[in-house]
Structures are given as C-alpha cells and as structure tokens.
Amino acid sequence: MADADQKKTPPDKSFPASATTRIPFAIALAMLAGCADSIGFLEFSQLFMSFMSGNTTRFGVAVANADWENVTRVASTIIVFCFGAFLGTLIAAWVGRWRLSILLTIQAVLMGIGLFMPWGTFAFPLHAYPIVLALGLQNAILQDEQGRSIALTYVTGAVVRFGTGLANLMLGTVAPSFWLQAPLWGGLSTGAVIGGVLQIRYGENAFLFPAALAALLALVAVVLTVARPGSTLVAGSSPPPDAGSHAKPSDAIH
Questions:
Q1: Rounded distance, CA 225 to CA 248, Å?
Q2: CA 178 → CA 73, 160, 166, 169, 187, distances in Å?
Q3: Residue 55: in which H helix or E strand, if any?
Q4: What angle do CA 37, 186, 45 make, to 5 degrees?
C-alpha cells in the first residue's frame, strides 16, 4: 500500500503554493533582473544580461551586417542564458524543498563571481557570463513541474497579458493572473532604474546590489524552509506560476 501511495504522489518540486511568498518573490526577482540587465547594458556596450529578445534582434542585425565579432558575442550570451535555465531546472528537480534556497544562493554567488572573472574579448565577454548564467538560472526558481514559470527576466509577456487582461476584464472573463502583470512590470522597471543609477555611480561594482538581493531572498527562503517544513510557503499543491492568490490549485505540484 505504501508503495502504491508513493507511485501516485509525484516528487516535491517545492514550488511555493502560497501567494504570500510566490508573489513577493516574483516581484523581487523581476526587480533583480531589471537591475542586473540595466547595469549590464551600460557596462557591456548595450549587451543585455536577461532580455534575450533584445539580444536576438541584435544577433539578426549583426548577421545582416556581417559583423561576425558581434554575432559571436550575442550568440554566446544567448547560449549561456539558455544553459542557465537548463541547469536551474535540473537543480530544482534534484534538491526538492530546498529549491528556493539553493537556486537563490547559487544566483548570488554567480553574480559575485562575475566581478572577479577576466574581461575576455569583445566577442567572448567572460566577465558578463556569470551574470547571464545567474539570470538564466533565475527562470527555474518559480517554475512548476510542467515547466511553466513566471516571466521573471523579461517584461513583454507581462505587458501582453496586462493588455489582453484589460480587454478580458471588460468582457468579464479576466484570468486571476491578470492582477500580477502590472506589479511584475513595475518591479522590473524599478530595478532597471536602480541599476542604471548604481552603474553610473559605481560602475561594475553595482552588480553587488542584485547579488545582495539574491542573497537576502535566499536567507528568507532558508528560514522559511527550516521553520516551516512542508509549508505551502515553500512547497505544496500550487496554481499555475503566474496565477493570482485565488486561483485553484493544479495537480502539477504536491
């Protein structure tokens, strides 16, 4: 009987079921991404750290202009970011209820390591890669078992969902996730402003701010995991990642 129950229950992926932690973490992480992206954009000659749509456009323009050095630069950044999302998803699956704590700690460490990496060349900006890897990994932090995650490192999805949500609100069919989109945009935008101000004043050392924010969130996650083991604050049956606080749980996370 015990074996049968074990087979029926999927492994705990520790996706926060409670909106009490899921939504504040999402907004804080969006702000972190906006901050790091703004710093990196100014520090690395308009290279995006987390906005891969922008980098993809730059890649296309570089190919059209036969600017192969820039092609290599942008393509390598996209690959590192993608690898971060890949690695983060695997780590999340391995560590169970410690998912938030471990992924956020790794992110903080990577952002700190970036300051000590060699600069590399224009085509291979080694100094930027740990930051890009950390932001790619961030996308696995609030990802459920089916691979759905909140858009934490880009804002286009939030703007689209907000616009369509306004129309659906008028039609009376608005989704619960509508109410999270504006705060996500606000968090990322606020972070971008903070990052720009910090970079102008402190240069590359400005990356210490998003690193410290990731470390603070990791500490909060550790405290919650230790103090409330099995709590919906860090795990449990959860609605889709971008759902609002009143959304019905799905069967993806148990």
A1: 23
A2: 36, 10, 8, 9, 15
A3: helix 52-64
A4: 20
Q: What is the DSSP letter of 115?
A: G
Put simply, whether the predicted model's pTM sits higher than 0.90 gets the answer no
Three-state SS sequence of 208-247: HHHHHHHHHHHHHHHHHHHHCCCCCCCCCCCCCCCCCCCC
Which residues, in sequence order, are CB contacts of 43 under 8 Å at separation 6+?
Answer: 128, 199, 203, 204, 206
Give the number of other Cβ atoms within 10 Å of residue 185's Cβ.
21
Q: Do residues 217 and 200 make contact, with C-beta atoms less than 8 angstroms apart?
A: no
User: Which residues neighbour 248 within 8 Å (Cβ) at sequence distance 6 or greater?
Assistant: 239
Give the model confidence (pLDDT) of 165-204 as tens digits.
Answer: 888 888 888 777 777 888 888 899 999 999 999 999 999 9
Extract the tokens encoding 193: 């402003």
